[in-house]
Amino acid sequence: MQPVLAPFPATRLRRNRATPALRALVRETHLDPSDLIWPVFVMEGEDCTTDIPSMPGVQRLSVDRLAKAAVEAEARGIPAMCIFPYTDMAARTEDCALAWSMDNIANRAIRAIKDAAPNMAVMTDIALDPYNINGHDGFVVDGRIVNDETVEALVKMALAQAESGADILGPSDMMDGRIGAIRAALESAGHRDVTIMSYAAKYASGYYGPFRDAVGASAALKGDKKTYQMDPANSDEALRHIARDLSEGADMVMVKPGMPYLDICRRVKDQFGVPTFAYQVSGEYAMLKAAFANGWLDPQKVVIETLMCFKRAGCDGILTYFAPEVAEALQG
Ligand code: PBG
């Protein structure tokens, strides 16, 4: 009798990895500049920028500089930019009235980008924190963040942004009922085609620290945001949020932060099959930049890898501070 040999492998998974051509053929996900939304910080002034120490390589830009940056970003194939305003501490008040002024820095930035780069989709942030003396996303009354009064203010903010020409509104405040209220107001004001990307699964995360430096909210913020942003321990709750926001009229949804929350991205995409975005937030950016500066990680390899992971996890696109350099690298 012949000895029984261990069966020789019929399946050699390495075959499909043997050459760059074969690897390209079997690649399941692709990253393209059209997957990127570039978050930018805008400030008062003319032809000037300031550095943000905890976000090396990211600057706050004056409106004219921002408009130029939009033209370059459009040329690199980036489809959307998301505007975050830096407002003077002295302009922040308890009633946050600047938030819905047509002339605030964010609304001027929307108009400037639309003028300079008409095909660039402009996304906004809807939350009171850049205008609020205490750094919170909602009004504070007797130490509590009040929901319904805040929603009324967010609606006014949304209308001013839509009026300024924003394409995508991004409510990031996490108040209950804001998507429905904003959607109804947009409809009755005739802004029927303005898209809402709800920050639907936004967690009370430690990863927002550098962003709060960038918008000058770190010093202002009293307490934390745990009564409105989600507990990082929860996952089912994210799905309830998404279902609720979609039923109220959100067109796209966001998970935030990004890479530590890829499991949420996957669950959202699988369950709802709607346009799903992740925000690779400031802390994720800062962490990678620190490792690059120390020579511990290679940016050429790691940045694309991190963004590809979002696509693999089911995201349609990513908000990332790396957008301009990645778009350039992808264009070759
Ligand atoms: C504010 C807002 C935050 C971010 C986006 N919109 C900060 C916060 O919730 O405190 C964070 C973005 C980042 O960290 O890159 N509503």
From TrEMBL:
<feature type="active site" description="Schiff-base intermediate with substrate">
    <location>
        <position position="202"/>
    </location>
</feature>
<dbReference type="InterPro" id="IPR001731">
    <property type="entry name" value="ALAD"/>
</dbReference>
<comment type="pathway">
    <text>Porphyrin-containing compound metabolism; protoporphyrin-IX biosynthesis; coproporphyrinogen-III from 5-aminolevulinate: step 1/4.</text>
</comment>
<keyword id="KW-0350">Heme biosynthesis</keyword>
<keyword id="KW-0456">Lyase</keyword>
<dbReference type="GO" id="GO:0005829">
    <property type="term" value="C:cytosol"/>
</dbReference>
<protein>
    <recommendedName>
        <fullName>Delta-aminolevulinic acid dehydratase</fullName>
        <ecNumber>4.2.1.24</ecNumber>
    </recommendedName>
</protein>
<dbReference type="InterPro" id="IPR013785">
    <property type="entry name" value="Aldolase_TIM"/>
</dbReference>
<comment type="subunit">
    <text>Homooctamer.</text>
</comment>
<comment type="similarity">
    <text>Belongs to the ALAD family.</text>
</comment>
<dbReference type="InterPro" id="IPR030656">
    <property type="entry name" value="ALAD_AS"/>
</dbReference>
<dbReference type="GO" id="GO:0004655">
    <property type="term" value="F:porphobilinogen synthase activity"/>
</dbReference>
<dbReference type="GO" id="GO:0006782">
    <property type="term" value="P:protoporphyrinogen IX biosynthetic process"/>
</dbReference>
<dbReference type="Pfam" id="PF00490">
    <property type="entry name" value="ALAD"/>
</dbReference>
<feature type="active site" description="Schiff-base intermediate with substrate">
    <location>
        <position position="256"/>
    </location>
</feature>
<keyword id="KW-0627">Porphyrin biosynthesis</keyword>
<dbReference type="GO" id="GO:0008270">
    <property type="term" value="F:zinc ion binding"/>
</dbReference>
